[in-house]
Every structure is written in structure tokens, then in C-alpha cells.
Amino acid sequence: MNYSFFGLTDVGQKRSHNEDAFLFDESHGLAVVADGMGGHAAGEVASGIAVEVIHEFIKTMDKEGEVTWPFEYNNEFSFEANLLIAGINLANDKILQKVDENNKLKGMGTTVVAGLFKGGKVTIAHIGDSRGYYFRNGKLNLITEDHSWVNEQLKKGIISEEQAREHPFKNVVTQALGSGEKLLVDIDEVKTENDDIFLFCSDGVNSMLSYDEMQSIFENYCKNIEDLAKKLIEAANNAGGDDNITVIIVRAYE
Known about the structure:
Number of domains: 1
CATH architecture: 4-Layer Sandwich
Structural class: alpha+beta
Number of strands: 10
Strand order of the largest sheet: 1-10-9-6-7
Helix content: 25-40%
Strand content: 25-35%
Distance between the termini: 5 Å
Largest sheet: 5 strands, antiparallel
CATH topology: Phosphatase 2c, domain 1
Radius of gyration: 17 Å
CATH superfamily: PPM-type phosphatase domain
Mean pLDDT: 92
């Protein structure tokens, strides 16, 4: 299976600067989106560290020769999953180190969603409320589950999906890089099929657009991943653009 990648970010309509960061590397099959948080532009420091450290680790582990594994290897997960878990934990350590070195960065953190495409599958790791989706046979499917206060209330049936989108606590995450030394990284693996389209995005997309609105955009713009990315950002901005908006689109093809 082969994969083509495209990504875009936009500051949105309400924010003065962009605290999102993203990176894709076709040669290593990697896509990463990070949504930073923290005052004094510290959010963009945290998100930038996250994408850079994860990328460097994946590149290093792809090289031939002996490399020391930085954390305990979990045999319950695939090699690709262990790569992403280790990369995310290294990024977390680097963010905590930066905070120790500079008290002005205290409180900074970031979400992460990362996909590693190898052969006929994608391994997805995430912390926080940045999301991964895939579009197959005309249907958009959510892969990840938000680590957020609102999602916990939604799962308990306390609030509805519509209330979740408008809730004043909708940006409160229950896990993020920079919040502590122990991370519980969620892992999902999906076997890829020809013409699958994968979306990795910050919550600036799905907090502005309903599932039905996103489904409609995928139906109408799925032929071209650049047009699809631009349309998602345009639609999120037209809906209010309350947050920074970042998307990476990946198409699988034989």
C-alpha cells in the first residue's frame, strides 16, 4: 500500500496566534498533529517540541544499526505502537524539562495525535482531544476517543453531543503532554484499504463542525486531498473559527 499526505493549519477567527503544530513525512509514513496550550505563547513551544521530538525519534529508529530503546518495550503492542508511545513519552519528558529550565513556561502542554503508516496498516497514538478519523466506502469513522472532561460526561449520558459542542468546558482535557510524568497513550490500529482517506486534526475542526457536516464535506471533496483539507478549514472558519485549525489528510492507494 502507498500513501500520499497533505496538511494545512490556520489561526482561525478568534485567536491572535497559532498554538497548533503539525508535521508529515511521507518517507517514514508519519503524520503528527499537536494542539498546544499555555499562556505567553508557551502552547506553541509545547506543540513544536512534540512534533519535532516524535519525528526525530521515528527517523532515528528507522536507521540501521543498534539503537537503545528509551523506555520499557510493551510486548502487548506492535513495534509501530511502541515507536509512537516512546516518541510521545520522549516529547513529554522534553516539555517537562523545558518547564524546569524556564518558569515562564509553567503550565504549557499539548495534545498529540500521530499516525504511522507501514505496509497495509496505520498505527494511531493519541493523548488529549486531537482526533483521528478514516473515510471508507462513503462513511466517515472516528478512530480516537477524546481524553476530555466533556467526553467523560458524554459517555455517562449526562450531556448530549449538541451540549458537548457548546459546553463551556469543551476545551478541558484530562490528559496532555506536559501535565505529568506518566502518560497513558491510547493506541488504535486500522488495516488500510485502497482509497481510504485518513484525517488527523486539532479540535478546531470537530468543535466547529458536526459529524454530519464533516461527513458531507468528505463526500463532496474526497477526490482531492488538498481540496478536502482546504474545505475543512474553510468550513470551520465559517462556523466561527473559535480555535486554531489544523488538518493532515492521508490517502491510501495501491
